[in-house]
Automatic annotation (TrEMBL):
Entry similarity comment: Belongs to the short-chain dehydrogenases/reductases (SDR) family.
Gene Ontology MF annotations: 3-oxoacyl-[acyl-carrier-protein] reductase (NADPH) activity
Name of protein: 3-oxoacyl-[acyl-carrier protein] reductase
Top-rank taxon: Bacteria
Biological-process GO terms, alphabetical: bile acid metabolic process
EC number annotated for this UniProt entry: 1.1.1.100
Keywords, sorted A to Z: Oxidoreductase
Organism: Paenibacillus phyllosphaerae
Gene3D superfamilies, per the entry: NAD(P)-binding Rossmann-like Domain (3.40.50.720)
InterPro entries linked to this entry: NAD(P)-bd_dom_sf, SDR_fam
Amino acid sequence: MKLDLTGKTALVTGATGDLGRVMVRTLASCGADIVIHYNQNAAKAEALRLEVGALGRRAVIVQADITDSASVTAMKDTVEQTLGAVDIVVANAVIQYQWTSVLEQPLEDYTSQFESCVMQSVYLAKAFIPGMIEHKQGGRFIGINTECAMQNFANQSAYVAGKRGMDGVYRVLAREVGEHQITVNQVAPGWTISDRDRDNGTEHSEGYERTVPLKRRGTDQEIANAVAFLASDLSSFITGAYIPVSGGNVMPTI
């Protein structure tokens, strides 16, 4: 038994980011062709394209503003003209901002989180799910959420609001497209170790690790592994799920 994505095409938004790059490599290693979405970092996108090619997979680079419907639609048109239909969508991109209290948080940060968490997912669904339905081969729609959506800690309000709104869209969408064998799920990382931490020597945080049942931070590869599983046929009967990959730091209840 293995994660085999041969013959599938996967789109990863925010592919040039710390987590996005590992997702791209992992999905390509499982056999998928890759749509490498970026907003600003063309150089990293090209480097990723070369990595995917070295793995024997096809890749196309597409620049798009994931908070703009027309830009997402244009991305879809470009992808279909180059790689064909998309089978797997991973909504990973998010706008970064400085966290502070509700009383101090600039109003535009709430808008940016709504646009990059909720509306990105809506635009991607409208652009790519009709093609999945038309091709009658099922599909995978995967969103990157966060453990913060369950924690609701101080200074997280804009981020949590965006991700909790995103959660609602995914749960409803799972019910709406399930009859087409399209699954809709969310991966919710904890505070994840990335290349930035490795470069800066900041992999460990005693205070945070003390709260985690597994007593450590997760890695970018562990998040990408969960995404690859949900993208594969091994997850064919899982939909509507919010799956923390946080070492037990948050646990959804029944």
